[in-house]
Amino acid sequence: MNIDILIPFKDAEAHLPNICYDLSQQTFNNFQVTFISDDSIDGSIEYLENTHFPFKSKILESTGQGPGTARNIGIRNTDFEYICFIDVDDRIETNFIEEFTSVAINHKPDIVECMFKSISPDGEIISGTHIENFISNKDRFLTLLDGSTPRLSWGKIYKREHLLNIDCFFPDGIHNGEDHIFLLNAYSSNPTVEIVLKKLYSWVRHPNSLTNRPPTEKTIEDFIKVSELKSDIFEKYKSYITDKNLSSLAFSRRFFKEARMLQLQIKAFPSTSGNLIVKLQQGILHSEKLKKRRDDIEHDATSYWKDVMTQF
């Protein structure tokens, strides 16, 4: 049993030494690290090429279309049994590989998940895995649809054969929200899942990370595209969903709730907020794939339609 760790990066010279140190301290060495450059132009590649690591590694090139596309290149260019995603600016525990390996050998599941903690760059703990949801018997696919499970592709290992059998890849060209689509597809076919009740992954909340940057037109475009893909997935599987809390109306309300949250992020930057809010509203109005979501909410008793579609 072996694991290929896929790490996409773009201009990550400042972060690579930390994650490479964590990888060099692993108690098990049955892994390879595949670094995928997403058009990186700083000294990242030179650092990787000129540093000796105690683990196997290789460098691949992506096309500047975001971390999802870079991860797809890694999935397609490995023959290892399991794959794992790590963000280049995060950290892992020294027993990260050992714990995943033990579960994978003993149970041979399609997916293994571990717990995580969210920390500041100084190491201060901000939040972490919600244990009740993590150990819940509720279907992971349903909790990903309703938003109660974090949409994080890292902190897991995936059997590569499972991903290939269901043609599970990240949507190309999307920089925001691509994890959610990948996870919905990965969990849609009732995979076997095991969990590790240990916090092995640290999500470092850098102030300038992709998830913390001000919204842009690309943010809006990605939000609409990801919402369309999620809506397609919901419509595909809705006849199998028996949970009354995940009706079409509930799903549509969730979409408009997320749109309202995005609007609040946009309004935090007044100099560009007007144009971006109009772009968001127009994207929702003109998307044929979101018509069902609009129809559900326009005359709904909630304030979502008013909040998202009429306020500036």
Automatic annotation (TrEMBL):
<feature type="domain" description="Glycosyltransferase 2-like">
    <location>
        <begin position="5"/>
        <end position="163"/>
    </location>
</feature>
<dbReference type="GO" id="GO:0016758">
    <property type="term" value="F:hexosyltransferase activity"/>
</dbReference>
<dbReference type="InterPro" id="IPR001173">
    <property type="entry name" value="Glyco_trans_2-like"/>
</dbReference>
<dbReference type="InterPro" id="IPR029044">
    <property type="entry name" value="Nucleotide-diphossugar_trans"/>
</dbReference>
<dbReference type="Pfam" id="PF00535">
    <property type="entry name" value="Glycos_transf_2"/>
</dbReference>
<protein>
    <submittedName>
        <fullName>Glycosyltransferase family 2 protein</fullName>
    </submittedName>
</protein>
<keyword id="KW-0808">Transferase</keyword>
